[in-house]
Write a structure and sequence with these properties.
heterodimer; A: 385 residues; alpha/beta; nine-stranded mixed beta sheet; two-stranded antiparallel ribbon; 37% helix; 18% strand; B: 80 residues; globular
Chain lengths: 385, 80
């Protein structure tokens, strides 16, 4: 297996764009990415697209060749990957494996979702289809409801408080306020989060990530060819994907995501590093409790210590391990299929030292964690300068 | 071997939430309480809680009993 590099990145802003369709969002991200890599479309040998529910949100299926054609990429293998909110991470993982195995040299990976064309109850229903339909969703569960039940149990077992959850939102909104590509660029106070409209108790609207439109793309090449495209290649040290049962009721302990732990162990092993070596991370904060669980399952802190560690500022930009300096899904927005790819783009920006007002002091080794559903898919990636 | 029949015996609340923002088919029912119940005979099930008032809502550790099945969904209530 040969080493792989990210040689170009491109994103659209995330937000609600009523006058943009899925194809134009994807094409914008891809065009920015190819420009960043000084590459023309004809150099791309294969295309992997992360998308969760284009057929439901906008009615268009067969999305990989649809997007490829919109970008002048015809004739190459074009494949869509669906892994709920980890669709983008899965596309990245499979793209890296294809280059690493020598199937192709130059591979384009993109993620896109166009969500805001549907009313919120319909969006909740489409998202819910990524859960266990027969057991959970038929009973009236939503993803906020599943994560609310996880939060209740985490609070019960470890003493995590309502304020700890809110502190994730406060931090990520403060970070996202400095991100020109974020959907909700505003700071929020602890009081605002706590007093906000309940979505699924104990979670309020500020514990939930946003329904957004957006796209992200990145270009992969063998490390040995990276300098053909960029003077600042970023090396993919490790990437791993894992899965688990869909339904919470079928998991022994819902306060931990086994798929995240398994993917992290494998990615750490591939990279030859451990959690203590990671300098910063972009994690999947679809709900505030998910960030607390992520920093535990990734091994940054012991199980149950995620809440207090967050409360003490351990994950702030000047903390021991800065988490979601981009603003996370919470502030940046969560166009589902784009998220996993955008996380890698955000890590690459930090590693290159191009994160502007969000630039971290230590930025040589970063990690991204992308979660699908209530933990049925997880992808963990480790990248370095 | 007979297929395992779903059983709806009494149990203990493993976790719960009150859903305010409901998905499309359940919008008219919100707010409603969902729980994962640890059944006495083993295993867990996702159920709806019948509660007409705040006091009838359940918390982790509460004992609950089966009331009825509605369109395949088990409804439980707090054991008096």
């Amino acid at each position: 297996m040969r080493p792989v590099a990210v040689v170009g990145i491109g994103k659209t802003p995330f937000g609600a764009f009523p006058d943009r369709d899925l194809g134009s969002l994807a094409a914008e991200a891809i065009s920015r990415c190819l420009a960043d890599a000084h590459a023309v479309p004809s150099r791309v040998e294969a295309f992997y697209l992360g998308n969760f529910a284009g057929p439901c949100f906008v009615g268009q299926n067969h999305l990989a060749p649809y997007v490829a054609a919109a970008c002048g990429l015809t004739g190459i293998p074009a494949t869509r990957l669906e892994a709920a909110c980890a669709s983008g991470g899965a596309a990245f993982c499979h793209g890296v494996m294809a280059v690493s195995a020598g199937l192709y040299d130059i591979v384009l990976v993109a993620g896109v979702e166009k969500m805001t064309s549907q009313p919120t109850p319909r969006v909740a229903q489409i998202l819910a289809s990524a859960g266990d339909l027969a057991g959970e969703m038929r009973a009236g569960a939503t993803f906020p409801a599943l994560f609310a039940m996880i939060a209740r149990r985490h609070m019960h077992q470890y003493g995590t408080t309502r304020e700890h959850l809110a502190q994730v939102a406060v931090k990520n909104h403060a970070n996202g306020a400095r991100n020109p590509f974020a959907h909700m660029r505003k700071e929020v106070t602890l009081e605002t989060v706590l007093a906000a409209r309940p979505v699924a108790e104990p979670l309020t609207v500020y514990d939930c990530s946003l329904i957004s439109d957006g796209a992200a793309a990145l270009l992969l090449a063998p490390l040995e060819r990276a300098l053909e495209f960029t003077s600042r290649p970023v090396r993919v040290l490790g990437v791993a994907q894992s899965s688990d049962r869909l339904a919470l009721q079928d998991k022994a302990d819902i306060t931990t995501f086994e798929a995240v732990k398994r993917a992290a162990e494998k990615a750490y092993r591939m990279a030859g590093v451990g959690p203590a070596d990671i300098e910063f991370a972009e994690v999947h904060d679809c709900f505030t409790i998910a960030e607390i669980m992520a920093i535990e399952d990734l091994g940054f802190v012991a199980k149950g210590e995620g809440g207090p560690f967050t409360g003490d500022g351990g994950t702030a930009p000047d903390g021991r391990i800065p988490v979601n300096a981009s603003g996370g899904l919470k502030s940046k927005g969560h166009p589902v299929g784009a998220t996993g790819v955008a996380q890698i783009c955000d890590v690459v920006e930090q590693l290159r030292g191009e994160a502007g007002a969000r630039q971290l002091k230590r930025h040589a080794l970063g990690l991204a964690q992308n979660l699908g559903g209530s933990g049925a898919t997880a992808v963990v990636s480790i990248l370095s300068r | 071997m007979e297929p395992r029949k779903p059983h709806f015996g009494p149990g203990i609340v493993y976790t719960e939430t009150v859903v305010h923002a409901a998905p499309e088919p359940f919008v008219d029912e919100a707010p409603y309480q969902l729980a994962i119940v640890e059944l006495e005979g083993g295993g867990r099930r996702t159920v709806r809680i019948l509660a007409r008032s705040e006091e009838q809502r359940v918390r982790i550790g509460d004992r609950v009993e089966f009331v009825e099945l509605r369109e395949g969904v088990p409804y439980y209530r707090k054991t008096p």
